[in-house]
Design brief:
mainly beta, four-stranded antiparallel beta sheet
Length: 124
């Protein structure tokens, strides 16, 4: 079993920054891909960043590209999401997710392990 715990959410003004962290435990993460998703009220959960565990290849949708950066610390089984130039439309619950196999996928259904989520609120 894999456990994921997010931290770092909060309230920030537009243009500000936040850094989310996801601590993983339970199994070795040497072959896991990690993703950060978000879900705003009334909207579907969407992928905002992903990283292959071994190669470090990353993915960002256009909506956050250039503003968000995903990184990982293999030794500490931790993944971070640095969010800069935040906008009110970034307001959502942010979730960390993991999948075995090392390669990220875009779909929610491809990630069997999820954290509890952390709220990010960006005020205008």
């Amino acid at each position: 079993q894999v456990q994921l715990v997010e931290s770092g959410g909060g309230l920030v003004q537009a243009g500000g920054s936040l850094r989310l962290s996801c601590a993983a435990s339970g199994r070795t993460f040497s072959s896991y891909a990690m993703g950060w998703f978000r879900q705003a009220p009334g909207k579907e959960r969407e992928l905002v960043a992903a990283i292959n565990w071994s190669s470090g290849i990353t993915y960002y949708p256009d909506s956050v590209k250039g503003r968000f950066t995903i990184s990982r610390d293999n030794a500490k089984n931790t993944v971070h999401l640095q969010m800069n130039s935040l906008k009110p439309e970034d307001t959502a619950v942010y979730y960390c997710a993991a999948r075995a196999g090392g390669i990220y996928y875009y779909s929610v259904s491809q990630y069997p392990y999820w954290g509890q989520g952390t709220q990010v609120t960006v005020s205008s």
